[in-house]
Amino acid sequence: MALIVQKFGGTSMADPDRIRESARRVKRELDRGNQVVVAVSAMKGETDRLLNLGMAINPRAGADCPREMDMLASTGEQVSIALMAIALNSMGFDSISLTGRQVGVYTDGAFMKAKITSITADRVKKELAEGKVIVVAGFQGMDPNDDVTTMGRGASDLTAVAISAALKADRCDIYTDVDGVYAADPRIVPQAKKLPVISYEEMLEMASAGAKVLHTRAVELAAKYNVKVKVLSSFDELPEDITVDLPGTIVTSEPDSIREDVLVSSIQRTTNEAKVTLVDVADRPGTAAKIFQLLADHSVVVDMIVQNVGAGGEADLSFTVERPDLVRIKKIESQIKDLVGAQDVLYDDKISKISAIGVGMRTHAGVAARMFEALGKRGINILMISTSEIKISVVIGEEYTELAVRTLCDEFHLTESVK
Ligand code: ADP
Ligand code: ASP
Ligand code: MG
């Protein structure tokens, strides 16, 4: 008998029919003789609805009363756990729902982006031993003051992986609206190749480059505790034969096939970033340190950084940040200018970041040249570039996002010819 954690996302919990359909996946695993712990997200759109309600009363509610915003947002998952437990009970299983607090998901006190500090899971173990099917609320935890926290958008994946690690589960199944991880978002490239197995390392780069299908911190945690993750669909027809394994993508430490011939295994995009340029900054030692310290003091997370030094001894410094952080930067604009003598601060939020990822890049040259040439041929101008060992990212105009993803999928043979 294996212990499987099954996570159902918002689309899999969207309405009573979908919840019943998801519950059939739980039943299937139980019928196979396994123990199951379920983790669920709020119903599709519910977290947005709740947060918008708070902001309708105070547009700055996130900054002014983050504790209350977490209290509010966490209710979405509370509704879902009860509905899933009702569905499972109606199928004849003894099922109970538990909130993050009841499970013992302890976090730090950073509301809206809390980090897990420990999971006791005592209650889960006790109820499991009594033969119950446990349904755990994703996304939420409890801080040292006994206050409800949430762990960032999309973080129910993180709950599922964390519970899997705490219970030493045999597998963590992430059910969503696609049947696995693809070389590119199948919504942009419907013919993108499906990746049957992928390493934690590549998945982590993909997630941080925008592959929403798994939360970055969930992949990080899975790698740390060696949790075997499988991504699969809650929408596909279930096979009659319960012994058949459902198709999906396995994320693991050792992918079956070592594919040295594959230079680039996926193309991802993010459209949630903005570019900030400080014009005519004094080109002196210590300038960059001052700017980025000030930004860090205001909790602004910087991604790419590019500096161009002009002949006159002055530099333009550009960097990208998450779009919502622009508000914070604009507030300290004059402070930034004074600190480093910048003439102007320019903002561009009509950008996107396109990344090519692949472990093959480590040992093969020329990927960057091919990537830039393919984009150039399509008339796509590159605004910024950054590289890591297995990833090359470029910032381009937002209007070219989909064209760039498709172009690069063609260039690196990441599409199936017929599907
Ligand atoms: P859930 O609500 O189940 O958590 P998400 O919307 O967070 O689902 O994640 C699933 C979505 O991730 C898919 O609908 C798909 O559009 C998107 N996605 C982005 N990149 C990829 C990729 N490389 N492979 C599969 N899905 C991807
Ligand atoms: N309900 C939360 C969100 O919408 C968490 C999740 O779905 O994973 O961000
Ligand atoms: Mg998700």
The top-level CATH class of the largest domain is Alpha Beta
The Rg value, from CA coordinates, equals 23 Å
What is CATH's topology name of the largest domain?
Carbamate kinase
- Report the span from N to C terminus: 36 Å
Number of β-strand runs: 20
Poorly predicted residue ranges:
none
Largest sheet: 8 strands, mixed
Number of helices: 14
Strand content: 25-35%
Strand order of the largest sheet: 3-6-2-1-9-11-12-10
User: What would you call the structural class?
Assistant: alpha/beta
Mean pLDDT: 94
What sort of overall outline do the alpha carbons produce when their principal axes are compared? globular
How many domain regions? Answer: 2
CATH second-level architecture of the largest domain: 3-Layer(aba) Sandwich
Helix proportion range: 25-40%
Ligand inventory reads: adenosine-5'-diphosphate, aspartic acid, magnesium ion
CATH superfamily of the largest domain: Acetylglutamate kinase-like
Descriptive terms for the model:
four-stranded antiparallel sheet, 419 residues, Carbamate kinase, binds aspartic acid, alpha/beta, 2 domains, binds adenosine-5'-diphosphate, 35% helix, globular, VC0802-like, binds magnesium ion, eight-stranded mixed sheet
